[in-house]
Design goal:
Blueprint: H1 3-18, E1 23-26, H2 33-44, E2 48-50, H3 51-59, H4 63-70, H5 72-89, E3 93-95, H6 104-113, E4 115-120, H7 123-130, H8 144-159, E5 164-167, H9 173-187
Helix pairs in contact: 1-9, 2-9, 3-5, 4-5, 5-6, 7-8
The protein binds shikimate-3-phosphate (S3P).
Length: 188
C-alpha cells in the first residue's frame, strides 16, 4: 500500500471514531442512497441497512404491493416505525426511501437521534438511474422526469434540513462516500 493510501485510511479511521450516532441517508429516488450507503458503511467498518428492505421484510410485501393494496399512508406508517427501530438497533448507516424524511415525525426522529445526510443530485442523473428499475410506484403513472422535478421542488425544503448535504456526482461511489465522511467531520 502506498504512503498516500495509508494516510488516507488513517484519516478515515480518525474521522470514523468520532461518529457515534447512526448515519441516515435521505434524498430523492436515484440519488444513490443505497449504493453509496453500502460503500460508506464498508469504509467506516459499520453495518449497512436499507430501510425499504427492512419495511418489506416486516410487512412480507414489496413496497409496490403495499402502495397498491393499502395505499401510501399505510406504507408511511410502517416506514416511520421501522426507521425508529433501525436507529435504535443500529449505529451504522441507514438508507431511507425518498419520502421518509418528508414525514414530519420521521424527520424529527432522525434529526434527534442520527446524523442526517442529504444526498443531492441533478434531475437528469436521477431520471437516468431510476430508469434502470421499474419497482418504484411513484414513477409509474406519468413522465418520470416531470414527477422527479415536482418531487425535487416539493421536497427540497425538507431535505435541506438534514445536518449535512453532499452532492452525488457521476463518479465512483467511493468519492461520494468519502465526501460524506468529510462533511460530517466538518459538521461535528
Ligand atoms: C419513495 C421512494 C422509494 C420507496 C417508495 C417511495 C418516495 O425509495 O420508499 O417507492 O416517496 O420517494 P428510494 O428512494 O430508495 O427509491
Amino acid at each position: 500500500m502506498t504512503e498516500q493510501a495509508l494516510s488516507n485510511d488513517a484519516e478515515i479511521a480518525r474521522m470514523a471514531r468520532r461518529i457515534t450516532r447512526p448515519i441516515v441517508l435521505v434524498g430523492l429516488m436515484g440519488a444513490g442512497k443505497s449504493t453509496v450507503g453500502r460503500r460508506l458503511a464498508t469504509m467506516l467498518g459499520r453495518d449497512f441497512i436499507d430501510a425499504d428492505d427492512a419495511i418489506e421484510e416486516a410487512a412480507q410485501r414489496s413496497v409496490g404491493e403495499m402502495f397498491e393494496e393499502f395505499g401510501e399512508a399505510y406504507f408511511r406508517d410502517g416506514e416511520r416505525r421501522v426507521i425508529a427501530r433501525l436507529m435504535e438497533e443500529n449505529s451504522g448507516v441507514i438508507a431511507t426511501g425518498g419520502g421518509a424524511f418528508v414525514d414530519p415525525e420521521t424527520r424529527a426522529l432522525i434529526l434527534e437521534q442520527a446524523i442526517a445526510v442529504w444526498i443531492d443530485c441533478d434531475i437528469d442523473t436521477l431520471v437516468e438511474r431510476t430508469s434502470r428499475r421499474d419497482t418504484r410506484p411513484l414513477l409509474k403513472n406519468g413522465d418520470p422526469k416531470a414527477i422527479l422535478t415536482k418531487l425535487f421542488n416539493d421536497r427540497s425544503e425538507y431535505y435541506a434540513q438534514a445536518h449535512v448535504r453532499v452532492l452525488s456526482e457521476d463518479g465512483p461511489h467511493a468519492d461520494t462516500a468519502r465526501a460524506i465522511i468529510e462533511a460530517i467531520d466538518r459538521w461535528m
